[in-house]
Specification:
With 620 residues, this protein is of the alpha/beta class. It has 23 helices and 10 strands. Helix content is 60%, strand content 9%.
Length: 620
């Protein structure tokens, strides 16, 4: 590092080879990982079963009730045969009273068993979906910040809400009961075979066309359900974007254009939904038609069997009754195919989000000696750092090298697009696929755990975001180390306590979303207090370019001067006072450091810095 008074620049060397394996390379996933191959429906369903296992007691209760439901289902048609053949046809009604009681008992047992397993399965499904939603939200919170640059928030919101609701309506309600329907169907088929194998053979003849037709439509349903979910996610993302910027839309009278774009996106959703509805209706109606024709054929064939004396009237009536009980699960199964495809489509989207790598998985475990080294901030070094946002994109940083030691105050200046903010994004590890080396206390940035990085470096962002919570919450953000006393000390440090103590409730004063009930300058002071509360030793300050009222502007300037006096600071500087108070100034141009030195040395050089300063003075 040159002496503070020198104004100099070193020309960047050529970028390192992509496969050189530089110590700073730490790829961050922005797109679906390499393992994003087509996975089977069973693999998707296994993800759901993972959340079902903790609720095994409720699942066991549901399965325990299934045999009673199956027994009641079998007993009813058997009793109908006995009533007709033993009481109605012979005209002997002596047994009818007891038979009616048995029928009533079987119906009651069936209702109770169905109620128990339906409640148990639905409770299991609801609990499982709730656990999956919580885990998915926790997973999203662990994603690197660059992930949110490439994935619209509306799409993520759809995965957490709409897709989860689709899973809730299908897996939690329908799919878990599919097993019981299958058991009942098998049991009823066995009963039919015991009554008449010839009539049963007629029933079995309709199963192959049902299977072939269902399998034919299943793939089409899945395709259009996927399109529906994607179209809904896109429309939701656009809707959220428009609602967040509705004031800007109204300010520039862009309502009609915005409405037309939203209508286009909803038409895509409507078209995909219409196709899925068509195939869903076709599946149900064709299966309904096949079963109705089979039932008519069964009555015609069975009547001939009665006339020939092969089967009794009770057997035919019981057979038709049983056939209806078989066809009901078959018809429901065709509906469940549609529901199941919708569920798998949603589960596929959720699984894709689950397989995005969280930041913790991209950070190797620190060695004990490295953790000890990172207890206090000593130095930061960028060494020949090259960076671009995509593999085929232009280099945004080109051979950037500088060193910041404890107590230094560095200002980075340059025109828009020169690479200033990219340096901050790399330092805060919003992006990690740099080439070269970035080290804090001699430890490569890619090896530093997020908890240590957050303790060492605090970011004062240009953009403010405040939650719809109290002022104390917005400063502390539930960090256990930030006590109420630290909240007050931090607010006082950045001169925010003056306006806070004028508010009703003071630190318990509730803010509207993004601080809608305080001024922009006051919101910025709260963001400063939030950064100071973590007691980080290095502050990265991205100065806001927008102006605020003169009183709050003076408080912000006083806070920045105090931070510059007490902390190690890297500032993306826009104010002349901030630049002048820096011990070192880096001048960026097209991703390179073209000049560096103190204010006086760079001004005397009459180069790029002097030109930038002249522009700042003209616009001040």
């Amino acid at each position: 590092m040159s002496a503070p008074g020198e104004a100099q620049v070193k020309a960047p060397s050529a970028p390192p080879a992509a496969n050189s394996g530089g110590t700073g390379t730490a790829p961050t996933s922005h797109q679906p990982p390499a393992t994003d191959h087509q996975i089977s429906d069973w693999q998707l369903f296994q993800r759901f079963l993972h959340y079902v296992k903790p609720h095994g007691r409720w699942l066991a209760l549901g399965f325990a009730a299934v045999p009673f439901g199956v027994a009641a289902t079998l007993f009813l048609p058997w009793m109908i045969i006995r009533v007709i053949d033993d009481s109605v046809i012979p005209g002997d009604f002596s047994k009818l009273h007891s038979q009616a009681l048995l029928l009533g008992g079987a119906v009651l047992l069936g209702y109770v068993a169905d109620a128990v397993y339906t409640f148990a399965f639905q409770r299991t499904g609801q609990k499982s979906i709730a656990a999956m939603r919580e885990e998915l939200f926790a997973h999203v919170l662990q994603m690197p910040r660059s992930f949110f640059d490439h994935h619209p928030l509306g799409v993520i919101l759809t995965r957490l809400t709409s897709d989860m609701e689709a899973l809730n309506e299908s897996l939690a309600v329908g799919v878990l009961s599919l097993f019981t329907d299958l058991l009942k169907t098998i049991a009823l088929l066995i009963l039919l075979v015991s009554l008449s194998w010839k009539l049963t053979l007629v029933v079995l003849l309709i199963l192959p066309p049902i299977y072939l037709f269902s399998n034919f439509l299943r793939a089409r349903l899945r395709h259009y359900y996927n399109l529906t979910r994607e179209a809904l996610a896109e429309a939701t993302g656009y809707l959220q974007e428009c609602l967040n910027g509705v004031k800007t839309v109204q300010l520039y009278a862009a309502e009609r254009k915005t409405q037309r774009r939203f209508e286009t996106k909803t038409r895509h959703f409507f078209k995909a939904q219409s196709y899925s509805n068509f195939y869903d209706a076709a599946l149900f109606s064709v299966i309904e038609g096949i079963t109705s024709v089979a039932l008519a054929f069964m009555i015609w064939y069975g009547s001939g069997q009665i006339l020939e004396g092969v089967v009794s009237v009770g057997t035919l009536v019981g057979f038709i009754n049983t056939l209806n009980r078989i066809f009901i699960p078959i018809r429901e199964f065709t509906q469940q195919i549609a529901v199941f495809q919708r569920a798998l489509s949603s589960l596929e989207n959720v699984d894709r989000l689950f397989r995005e790598r969280p930041e913790a998985q991209d950070t190797p475990e620190e060695r004990p000696e490295e953790a000890e080294t990172l207890m206090r901030f000593e130095s930061l070094e960028f060494r020949e750092v090259w960076f671009r946002y995509s593999e085929d994109g232009p280099w945004v940083l080109r051979g950037v090298s500088f060193t910041v030691r404890q107590g230094d105050r560095m200002a980075i200046v340059g025109s828009t697009g020169s690479g200033k903010s990219t340096i901050v994004r790399l330092l805060t590890r919003t992006y990690g696929n740099y080439q070269g080396s970035i080290q804090i206390n001699g430890v490569e940035l890619s090896r530093i755990a997020r908890k240590h990085l957050n303790r060492l470096v605090a970011m004062m962002q240009q953009d403010t975001w405040l939650f719809e919570e109290t002022i104390a919450f917005n400063i502390a953000l539930n960090r256990p180390e930030v006590t109420p006393d630290k909240v007050r000390e931090s607010a006082n440090y950045v001169y925010a306590s003056a306006f806070i103590e004028r508010l009703p409730g003071q630190y318990d004063y509730g803010l509207l979303e993004n601080g809608g009930n305080i001024s922009a300058g006051e919101a910025r002071l709260l963001v400063f207090a939030r950064a100071i509360a973590g007691e980080s030793e290095m502050i990265v300050l991205d100065e806001a370019t927008s102006s605020v009222d003169s009183v709050t502007e003076a408080l912000i300037q006083k806070a920045i001067e105090r931070i510059f006096r007490d902390k190690t600071v890297i500032a993306i500087a826009h104010r002349l006072s901030t630049i002048r108070n820096s011990s070192q100034i880096l001048v960026m141009c097209q991703g390179e450091i073209v000049e560096r030195g103190t204010h006086d040395a760079l001004l005397a050089q009459a180069g790029d810095y002097a030109a930038l300063l002249h522009n700042l003075e003209e616009t001040a």
